[in-house]
Amino acid sequence: MNTDIRDRIEECYLIADEIEKNGVMKDEITTTLRENVRYEVLKFLSFLSSMDTEVTAKEIDFIKDATGFNATQGMVNSIILSEHLRESRYLDNVPFSFKYFILADAKGKLKNRSKVSVTYIDTFRALGQEFVAEMDISAERILAQFTSYISMMEKYAKEYGIAGSKGCVKSVKTDKKTVEEALCELNALTGLEGVKHDVNMLVNLMRVQKIREERGLKQPSVSKHLVFSGNPGTGKTTVARLLAGIYHSLGILSGGHLVEVDRSGLVSGYIGQTATKVMEVVESAMGGILFIDEAYTLTSNKGQGDFGQEAVDTLLKAMEDNRDNLVVIVAGYSNLMEEFLNSNPGLRSRFNKFMKFEDYTPEQLLDIVKGMAAKQDYVLSEEAKAATIQHFEKICANKPDNFANAREARNFLERAISKQAGRIVDIENIDKDTIMRLEVCDLDI
What we know:
alpha/beta
């Protein structure tokens, strides 16, 4: 399970803690709201597992990873029976914990948060999509049940006047830079030597294209759309943002912004709605770059109940109609992106430029940790640097499937900062160097 899903679940837990702390809850319950959310995650995944003929060992491993429960096939089967997960009434009952997320929104109880119920819905949507993709599920009945579960929560939120989510769609306005400034920022990034070379070659090509246009010469047809392949946390979004600014500075794009979206922001659960959803996203990306993360999820399911192919067909037409003011970048794991491109001849013809984002080396991960630390006024002692690189050497020698590169480096640093705070908080007359310095004992190794 990817790190983003874990972060979403953890965010729901933190919101649950805040809801309880701020007195939103009136019912007396025997567990914390955090534990209630956790159990709802377990029920939801058990519900999806119940649609198969049997609960598989692979499904159990996913449930363990997502919930932290030491789940077994017997435990999940027991939940399926006791909670009536195979019966239609499960889809009629809003999760208990979700009701309090709704009340927190309706009463405005959380000062620094809004639409926490949408966060809850989006977390379960992303979790379900990850489960379906990991289990390679294409059965129409399972996809329909998953869609119905999410729709049930969205309907309940709307009854309280809380607008539903459009899925994961984020628009980022890039800073105005010259081409040289943007390339300098790109070339200063840790690692990514192949990507840097490819971007510089692409920029040179675009510059020559502009010169030919100014001289009244014919311009060869060159696709601006790109495929970014590689593991999570390798800088794909960062490079896409820089490219948006470069294309704008070259006069290729009128706006230069970046719109990030995943499957949930493009695909709806009802006939006819997906095309509308795609066109809304395309319209928001006009003049900039549309960055589709985990694009392979659009074509990974072939059942009648899935509208991913409708999203692809609509997107291809929009790309053709707006070829002069829209660039699309599709991104994801290397092998899955190959499957995505092979799923439709139109995709392969429009996406013919590839950039491979390699995993970071242990040395590069240390550089990333040091750079992130410096931005927050922290430094690693020499002993901590040596321990950090040894830590990443061990991980890189046997990487887990969910290894997230720079995100792992960020999480590593955040844990170190937290441990250091606990170590130094009671030191009297503490000096600046001690406050800034991270020692080996602060590292989670």
